Amino acid sequence: MDSINGARPRVLLVDDEPAIRHMLQRALGKAGISTEEASNGREALDLLANASFDVVVTDLNMPGQSGLEFLRAIRKKDLDMPVIVMTGNPSIDSSASALEHGAFRYLVKPVLPATLRDVVERAIGAHRLARQKRRGLELSEHEEKQRSDRAELDSRFAAALDRLWMAFQPIVSVEERRVVAYEALLRSDEPTLANPAVLLQTAERLDRLTELGRTIRTTIGHATPPDGVNLFVNLHATDLLDEELYAAHAPLTRYADRIVLEITERASIEEIPQLEERIGRLRALGFRIALDDLGAGYAGLTSFTRLEPDVAKLDMSLIRDIHLRPAKQTIVRSLQEICAELGTVVVAEGVETKLELDILVGLGCDRFQGYFFAKPGRAFPTVDFG
Ligand code: G
Ligand code: MN
Predict the structure, then answer these.
(1) Which atom of ligand 1 is nearest to the CA of 292?
(2) Can you give the pTM of this predicted structure?
């Protein structure tokens, strides 16, 4: 017979008479049940505290602590443990109290081995059921907690959507000495979701990315950039699956010819069905397409050939300290040449210093975004060209 955890079932035998313990031990041993013995309640409680048992079999009349007191002590700690009570002096009183304290059975001595085996096996079965039921309850408590965690996250996310705004960061042309575009960047005043990456992750976890994308585009739709200045808008892969993006009345469509949709190499655009067809539809509406984070080391150049972007944004990891890094210079020069040949405009992102800028200009770049010119800010930060 197996116990709950697959090991041999273990029974704790408690009787002050060694001969009786021996008889019980033999009876149960024949059924493959292992036993431990204690001669009084105190010893038994010690054993119970240090090892796990499936069933307790106890005498009622023992010197010191009585079987009933022992039973009561067990119940304080363990509501499920089946306790089989035996007595040589049965009485209505003692049987009533035993059952009142949840004794599994009240057996009158002498107890026949076959009877004991039968009752112990039933008790093991009952214990297994009781534990399963309790575990089930704990499990549903866990589910309940998950539900309430999710509800809490849902409401924080809703608050973040309510308090969502867009920051705008200038993209400049050094040659033209002017701001040619702004990139719209996600922000929220909900303090626990103020970090845009965390907000996006949360939307993903809650399966609310589409809703977030729509809110972002609606918010951007309320801000019209100055005349002759374009707007760069980041798309998440999920946004490309949202039919609303392609709708004639959609918030960005009305000035699509001034909007450049950024698609990042980081998002798994390989997983988007009919990617080229979707990009074609966006172009037909007047949008232009930028490949974001080029060089960050995700999809390599495959997204370049699939998207044929109008704009390529060099990831800031390529830009950082480029004046000290000949390898970065070589890569940027090559990318710049490829883009020139394909008619793709290059924007170098994350330019922070004059040293970086000068090298980049020397490599043929003209369009820049970065703290050197302006941090993202409320619509629409200007740049001082001196
Ligand atoms: O992935 P994407 O290129 O859209 O990310 C733009 C992010 O880079 C924004 O969060 C913006 O705040 C940040 N950023 C813009 N310019 C700079 C810069 O010069 N240095 C650094 N470290 N971050 C920048
Ligand atoms: Mn971007």
Answers:
(1) 3
(2) 0.71
